[in-house]
Amino acid sequence: MQALNQAIKKSNTTWDALSLAYEKNSNTFEKELQTITSAFEKLEAEKEKCICEYGDINVDYETLLKINVGGRIITATRSALTYQKGSMLEAMFSGRWEKMLQRDECNNIFLDMNPNCFQTIVDYLVEMRYSSKTKTLCLTCSEKEMDCTLCQMATYFGINHDPKEGNCTLRSERNHADTEEAQSTTQRSLDEANREGLNIDEIFSDFKKAMSDKQKALDDAKQELQIVKTSWGKEKTFIESIVPTSKDDVINLNVRGTRITVRRSTLRIFKGSVLDRQFDDTAWSQRNTGKESINEWSNEQVVDWARDHIGIPDEIANFFLKTKLTVWNSLLLVVKTLES
Description:
Layout: H1 2-54, E1 64-69, E2 72-77, H2 78-81, H3 88-92, E3 109-111, H4 115-130, H5 147-157, H6 167-194, H7 200-242, E4 250-255, E5 258-263, H8 264-267, H9 274-278, H10 281-289, H11 299-308, H12 314-323, H13 328-339
Parallel strand pairs: 1-3
Antiparallel strand pairs: 1-2, 4-5
Helix pairs in contact: 1-7, 4-5, 11-12
InterPro entries: SKP1/BTB/POZ_sf, T1-type_BTB
Pfam family, one: BTB_2
Keywords: Coiled coil
C-alpha cells in the first residue's frame, strides 16, 4: 500500500510539473503569436498607406494599358502584366504605385527599355496565362542577339522564365501537397476509429506531437512574415529605382526616321561624352544666361561648341583648340572651307 501511495504522489508531482511547463510554453507561444500578428498588421497598414498615397485601389485588371517602351506603344491588359505574382512587373502594374509611374506627353506609362524584349515578355505572360498546366513554355527572343538583353530584363522584373520552376510546376506541387494532406487526414481518422482506448503512452505521444506541430506552425508563421517583409522591401526599392527625378524628363528623338523615346539620364550615363554634353540642359542654360554675343566667345567656348555638336568631328574641335581661334567669323570661314 505504501508503494502505491508513493507512486500516486510521484505521478501527481510529475503531472503538476508537466502542467506548469505546458502553461509556460502556452504563455510564450501566445506572446510570440501576438508579436507576429502585430507585425503582419503593421505591414498591412504600411501597404494600405502607400496605396492610398501612391496607388489606385480602383484599377480594373481587364483594362487595356498603353505603354510607351522606348518610343513604341505596346498594348496589354493589366491582368497579363500582373500574371506572375510576386514579380516586380506585377508590383509595377498592380495599381499600388500608379501615381509614381513615369508617363509621356500622352499620359502613357513610360519604360526606358528595349521594346522588342518587353513585347516578348508580355507575349510570354499571355501564353502562360492561357496555356495548359502541362505545357512547357520557353522565354526566347526572335532576334537571337537579343537573348542576353531579354534574360537580363526578365531577371530585372523578377519574371520566372525557367519552365522547371514556373507557375505550372508550383501549381502541381501545391495540388500534390493538398492530396497528401487529405490522405494523411483520412488515415488518421481511420486510425482513431480503430482504437479501442488510449493508454498513457498514446496520450503522451499525441500530446508531444501536438506541441511539436504547434511549434512548427509558429516557426512557419515567422518565416512567412520574413518573406513578406523581404518582398515588400524589394518592391519599394524597385519602385524607387524607376521613379524619375524632377530633372529626369522624357525626350523624344527622331533617329533617321525611327522615333525613340528615352530618359535624359540614359543619354547622359557616360559623363563627359558627346551625348552627355549635348543633353546637359544645365550647361546650356548657364551658357545662355549672360546673353553673351557669339563674337565675344573665348577659344574655350568655341571648342566646347564644336564638341557639343554631334555632326562636328573631334578633329575640328582639336584644330580650334590648337589654333586658339576666338573670332566667330573666322570660325565660319574655317567650317565652310572644311565642308568644301
